[in-house]
Amino acid sequence: MASTRFNQPDQRKVASSPRPKGRDNAKDTLCRNVLIYGHCRYEDQGCAFNHDPNKTLSLPSDMSAKKTLSVDSPAFTPATLSAPGKSSAISSQAVNAAPFTPRGLASGTVTPIPQAETEPATFNPAQIKEFTPQQTYDISTNPPANGTAPDAQMPYDPFSMSSVADAMPSAPYNPYLQADNSAMPSNGAAYYQAQPSFAAPAQPLQYHLYAPIGPHREDLTPYQRTVHDFFIPNSLREDLQRKSEATRQVMPNSGLPRLEKEKYHSLVPLDTNNNKSAAVFGFPSWVYKAQKEDGKYYVLRRLEGFRLSNAGAIGRIKEWKHIYNGGVVSVINSFTTQAFGDSSLIFVYNYHPMSKTLAEHHFSPTNRYGHRAPANEQVLWSYIVQIASAIKAVHGNNLAVRCLEASKVILTEKNRVRLSGCAVLDVVQFEANRPIHELQQEDFLHFGRLMLSIAANNQHISINAKVSIEQLLRAYTPDFRSAIVWLLTPAHVPATKNINDFLASISSHLVSSYDASLHANDALNTVLAGELENGRLFRLVTKLGLINERPEYDGQEKWSEVGERYILKLFRDFLFHARDPVTLRPQVDLGYILTHLNKLDAGSKEEIRLISRDEQDCIIVTYQELKKQIQLAFAELSKPATVVKGGRY
Ligand SMILES: Nc1ncnc2c1ncn2[C@@H]1O[C@H](COP(=O)(O)OP(=O)(O)OP(=O)(O)O)[C@@H](O)[C@H]1O
Q1: Residue of 443, 320, 447, 475 whose CA lies nearest to 385
Q2: Is the pTM value of this prediction over 0.90?
Q3: Is 419 helix (H, G, I), strand (E, B) or coil?
Q4: Mean pLDDT, residues 554-567
Q5: What atom in ligand 1 is closest to the CA of residue 351?
Q6: Residue 407 known to bind ligand
Q7: Who is most buried in 191, 562, 586, 587, counting CB within 10 A?
C-alpha cells in the first residue's frame, strides 16, 4: 500500500545565532547574553562571541560563569545606586561589548544601544533585550512576558484549539474594541499596534459551525438531538411548500380571461363557495389569484356588473396606496374591464397564499356534530390587537375600513390576521359622500360585532335586549367583556370614540402580543440561521458533484480522476460510500457527512486518510488541501471556453 502525505512542510526554521558584524575581536568579546543572563542559548549554534567570562572579566572566583542573574551579582548593581566615587564592578571591557543587532531587522526599527565612550555605562538590565533571531520563536520555551503573541501572522486553526490556544494572545480578541483603539489594554499595546490593520478581526470567524443561535429548550438531553435539528421544522417546511405550490397553481381550462390591457394572466379562482352574495359590497364579488407580466402574483377582486358613473371614484384608491400596515392587505390598483363579458370593477391586492377568511376558520363546522369549540381568549386578544393597529393606520390616514366582516378579514398564518377588501366601498359608494368621522365610528361597531360573533361562535349574531353581552361572554374575562362593550357602545354625539383611547385601555394585552411576536421572530431567526449553514454546504456538494465522475473535460479522458482531482474522488467515497466497520452496512449517518463537509468547508488542517477502493492507495491529506483542490478544479471548470480545431472546449 502506497502512502502519500500531502503538504507537510516543516514550518520551523532552525535558530540562527547572532553574528558580529565586521568585528575581528569577537572571540575576545564577552557575549552580552552571558553578561546579562549568565548564559547564551546560541553558544552551540554558532554565536561567535566569547562565552567564558573568566577569560575577559575579572569576576570573583566563586562566581560561576553559568550562574544566572542574582542580586549579589556585581554585574547587575545599577550604577546609579552605587556610591559616587566607587567604581562599577563590571569591567569597562564588558560595557564595551558589541551590541547585538538582530539579523534581518531593518536598521530603522532597532533602537541602537549606545556605546559607552568615555563615561562608565549606566547599566540597566531591563533596558537590554536578549538577542532573539527573527522567526525562530519557540512558544514552549519562551512564554510571552507581556501577554503578547510572538507571531501575529500565525494561522489560526479552529480544529486544533489545544495547540493553538497557547499561541493566542493572552488578551483575547475583543470585537467591541475594534472601533476604539484607545480602549486597548496597555499590556497588549505593542502587539496590537504591530497589526497592519486593526479593523480586521484577529482570528477568522468560524463560519463552518452550526451556531446554536436563538432560544433553546433546556429539557432535552444530548441524545435527543436529531438530524431534524439541522433543518427547518417539518411543519414550517410543509406550510411554506404548500404556499409555494398554491402560488404556482394554474388552471389551464378555467375559461377565465387574460386581462391584456392591465397585463394580468393565469387567473385562478380563490372563492371556496359558489353562492355569491351581494351583502357586503352590494354587488356579487369574485376573488382570483393572477400573475402579472412582472412575474409577481396578485389578488383580483371583481365586482360583477358594476358600472362606473363617476370617474373620480377610482381616484380614492390613491389614498389607500399610502397605507402600509401589517394588518391591512395592501391595495395596489383598481380599474374597470369588459374582459369577463360584463362591466366589472377590479381591485388589485397583494396575494397571501393559502389564506382563509375568519368566517371560514371560525364558522365552518369541524366535529361530527357540526359544532366548533369556542375561540380561545388569547387568540381573540391577538386578533383585537392586530385589527386595532390596522384601524389606527387607516383612521390616521383619514380613511375608514368600512368592511370589518368575518368574510373580509383573512388569516394568512396562524393567528395572523389582515383586513382584505379595503377601499371597495369607498369606490362603490363614492357618491353617497358620507362624512369620514361617521364611517370611522361605525368601524368600532363593526369591530365589536366581529369579535363578539367569533367569541359567541355565531356568525349572524344580533344584539338585543333579551340576551346581554355579559351573558354571551360569560366564559371570557371581565377585561375582554369590557373591551367588547366599549366597541359596541355608540358614542353620544358630539363626543366621538378614538382608536387611541381603545389601544390605551388594552395596553397590557398589547405588551403580551408584542412579546409573543418577538418570540415568533426569534424562532424564525433560529431556523434561518440553520438554513444559512445548509445553503453553504449545498454549494460545496454542488461543486463536488460537478467535479466527481466527470467523464471528459478539456480533452482529458478521465479528467476527474487524474492529478490532484484523484483525492477528490477518494474523498467522495470517504464521504458518501463509507461503511460501518462492524456490520459493513452503508454509513447513512447524516451527522458524519455534515461533520466532514463542515471541516472541508472550513479548510481544517486536520488530516484524514483516504483509501482507494482497491486498497492500493492510501493518502493522508488535510481538509485544507482538499478544499484547495476543489477550488482549483472548480475554477478550471468555470473558465471560459476556448475554441479549438474541430470542436469547442
Ligand atoms: N389578498 C388575498 N390573498 C389571498 N387570498 C385571499 C385574499 N383575499 C381574499 N382571499 C381569499 O379568497 C377567498 C374568497 O374571498 P371572499 O372575500 O370572496 O370570501 P367569501 O367567503 O367568498 O365572501 P363572500 O361570500 O362575501 O364572497 C377566501 O378564501 C379568502 O381567503
Answers
A1: 447
A2: no
A3: strand
A4: 83
A5: 3
A6: yes
A7: 191
Pocket test for ligand 1, best of 420, 422, 428, 450 (most atoms within 8 A of CB): 420
| Ligand 1 nearest-atom number relative to CA 405 | 26
Structural domain boundaries in the chain: 17-135, 249-505, 531-648
Supply the residue whose CA is at minimum distance from atom 14 of ligand 1: 271
**Ligand 1 atom nearest residue 350's Cα:** 1
pLDDT at 589 over 50: yes
Cell numbers for 259? 386581462
C-alpha cell at 647: 470542436
Q: Structurally, what CATH architecture does the domain formed by 531-648 represent?
A: Orthogonal Bundle (1.10)
- pLDDT tens across 565-583, in order? 899 999 999 999 998 888 8
* Contacts for 229 with CB less than 8 Å, ≥ 6 apart: 530
Q: Which amino acid does the sequence have at 568?
A: L
Among 333, 315, 337, smallest CA distance to 260 is for: 337
ipTM over 0.85: yes
Asked if 288 and 267 count as a contact pair (C-beta separation under 8 A), the reply is yes
Task: Name the residue of 357, 404, 450 whose CB sits within 8 Å of the most ligand 1 atoms, as the mutation to test its pocket.
Answer: 357
Atom 29 (ligand 1): residue with closest C-alpha?
356
262: DSSP letter: T
What is the domain class of 249-505 according to CATH? mainly alpha
User: For residues 459 and 223, which has the higher predicted lDDT (pLDDT)?
Assistant: 459
Question: Using one digit for the tens of pLDDT, what is the confidence trace for 242-272?
Answer: 999 999 999 988 899 999 999 999 999 998 7
C-alpha 329 – ligand 1 centre gap (Å): 12
User: Nearest CA to 155 among 605, 631, 611?
Assistant: 605
Contact 471, 494 (CB under 8 A): no
Atom of ligand 1 nearest to the CA of 285: 27
